[in-house]
């Protein structure tokens, strides 16, 4: 009898309707836009929000280049060699630490 009650509760809960409006949170990140932004956007935004970039803090060119290469070589992002250079330069230009290049 207990199993019947449990199955009935589970079945009825599957058909339950939630009638209250649900507000989904949205976060907007300020990101630098220049002539190379579209290259970074088409290669990186498929998997990452801009927050991923901003949360890294100011880093060296070597750091950013290693991140881009890792995304391509380890995670198989379709980043060309030409785009690797553009993305690394973009990231260092706006999110780089000039003292650590």
In short:
The chain has 101 residues and is an all-alpha fold. It has helices at residues 2-14, 37-44, 50-54, 61-73, 81-95.
Structure description:
- This protein is an all-alpha fold and 101 residues long.
- The chain has one domain: Orthogonal Bundle (Cytochrome Bc1 Complex, Chain D, domain 2), CATH 1.10.760.
- Helices cover 53% and strands 0% of the residues.
- It contains 5 helices and no strands.
- It has helices spanning 2-14, 37-44, 50-54, 61-73, 81-95.
- The model has no long low-confidence stretch (mean pLDDT 88).
How many domains? The number is 1
Write down the Rg. Answer: 22 Å
Tally of helical runs? 5
What are the low-pLDDT stretches, counting only 5+ consecutive residues below 50?
A: none
What's the CATH first level? Mainly Alpha
Strand content: under 5%
Compute the number of strand runs. Answer: 0
Major sheet summary line: none
Mean pLDDT: 88
**Elements, N to C (H/E):** HHHHH
CATH topology type: Cytochrome Bc1 Complex, Chain D, domain 2
Range of helix content: 40-55%
Write the layout of secondary structure elements.
Elements: H1 2-14, H2 37-44, H3 50-54, H4 61-73, H5 81-95
Helix pairs in contact: 2-5, 4-5
Observed structural traits:
Cytochrome Bc1 Complex, Chain D, domain 2, 5 helices, elongated, 101 residues, mainly alpha
């Amino acid at each position: 009898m207990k199993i019947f009650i449990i199955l009935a509760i589970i079945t009825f809960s599957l058909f339950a309707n939630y009638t209250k409006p649900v507000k989904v949170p949205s976060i907007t990140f300020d990101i630098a836009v220049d002539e190379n932004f579209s290259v970074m956007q088409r290669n990186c935004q498929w998997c990452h929000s801009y927050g991923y970039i901003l949360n890294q803090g100011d880093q060296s060119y070597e750091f950013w280049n290693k991140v881009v290469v890792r995304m391509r070589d380890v995670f198989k992002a379709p980043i060309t060699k030409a785009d690797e250079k553009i993305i690394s330069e973009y990231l260092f230009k706006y999110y780089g630490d000039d003292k650590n290049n």
